[in-house]
Design goal:
- This protein folds into two domains: 96 residues, Glutaredoxin, CATH 3.40.30.10; 102 residues, Glutathione S-transferase Yfyf (Class Pi), Chain A, domain 2 (Up-down Bundle), CATH 1.20.1050.
- The protein is 52% helix and 8% strand.
- It contains nine helices and four strands.
- The chain has a four-stranded mixed beta sheet, covered by helices on one side.
- Strand 3 and strand 4 form a beta hairpin.
- The structure holds glutathione.
Length: 239
């Protein structure tokens, strides 16, 4: 797989894991933009990044692309959608993309929080409850649109972020798409797009988050760990 030649490598600064940077990685992948994960794993590294002035809200992820410093994952995925022609062909398509991406953000949050839950059973119960709520709605939209896609007749960023979320759900609950055939077909279609398929088996794809990731985040942000973990305040600075 050949990616575009780029004089300046695109850089995505984030913790050593998927988290809120993952939708951007999928959008870089679908655009076939080569990028580097810049792992921010210590409070000192985060302080140094903040000191550059590139984080307008002091938050990660930060995407350096096309000479720009992008903050907010929702802005990153839309920038990359416009750049690659993944925002639909009409205003109506774009509206559907935004509505679905908004619902996906709510849906995906449960998968993002799964590693922070006290037990695997608690995490899975939360994921199953969310798929029960959102799954049939996403399914109905794909069916009603006629093309099996979120909007119009071409792949959009809504399809990409929806499948990114589903992919995380499937890692916890492999059976969830059994009664959702349009979602299953969309999932298969998106993970087999050339840029995405390449990304998913590349070294840049982080594994499913586990305790190591939860600890990395708390250490880097100097925050408390989830209360079920040993010594939850171990990274909270003395005041
Ligand atoms: N809506 C933002 C959320 C960013 C966010 O909460 N980032 C966290 C890490 S996942 C952070 O940098 N927290 C430190 C802070 O808020 O100061 C996005 O999606 O980019």
């Amino acid at each position: 797989m050949q990616f575009d030649d780029q004089a300046d490598i695109t850089k995505l600064h984030y913790f050593n894991g998927r988290g809120r940077a993952e939708t951007t990685r999928w959008m870089l992948a679908v655009n076939q933009i080569a990028f580097e994960n810049v792992s921010v794993e210590t409070p000192e590294a985060l302080a140094a990044l903040r000191a550059t002035g590139k984080l307008p809200f002091d938050q990660m992820p930060l995407l350096e692309v096309d000479g720009l410093n992008l903050s907010q994952s929702s802005a990153m995925i839309r920038y990359l959608a416009r750049r690659g022609g993944f925002y639909g062909e009409t205003d109506d398509d774009a509206l559907w993309c935004d509505m679905i991406a908004g619902a996906v953000a709510d849906f995906a949050e449960t998968a993002m929080q799964a590693a922070f839950q006290p037990t695997r059973e608690v995490a899975i119960a939360a994921l199953r409850s969310r798929i029960e709520k959102f799954g049939p709605r996403f399914e109905a939209r794909l069916d009603g649109n006629g093309s099996g896609l979120c909007a119009g007749t071409r792949i959009t960023f809504a399809d990409v972020v929806l499948v990114e979320a589903l992919n995380s759900y499937l890692e916890w609950c492999p059976d969830i798409l059994a009664s959702l055939p349009h979602l299953e077909a969309l999932h298969d279609r998106v993970v087999n797009l050339p840029g995405i398929a390449h990304y998913l088996c590349s070294a840049q794809r982080y594994p499913k988050a586990g305790n190591d990731y939860v600890i990395d985040v708390a250490r880097t942000l100097q925050r408390a760990l989830p209360s079920h973990m040993p010594d939850p305040n171990r990274f909270v600075p003395d005041r």
